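User: Please look over both lines:
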Amino acid sequence: MTDTEIEAKVLQLVADQLGLARTEVASESEFDKLGDSLDKTELMMAFEDSFDVSISDETASTVRTVADAVKLIRVHMTAKQTEV
């Protein structure tokens, strides 16, 4: 999966999870401005399910923007592929 594909999926997940139009969410969108801490927790769980990765609470706390989430997911997916 390319970074562009990951980003598109993350953007759609964020929009769906928060009940926003896809056009209201961008790479530079900050999670704190889109929703509350519960929303962010639910988003991290949605990312884990959708991308089959595991994101620790400590790591999740460092994710501020959609772009941060894309980078984190890419790192986890790459690490998982090298384990195989």
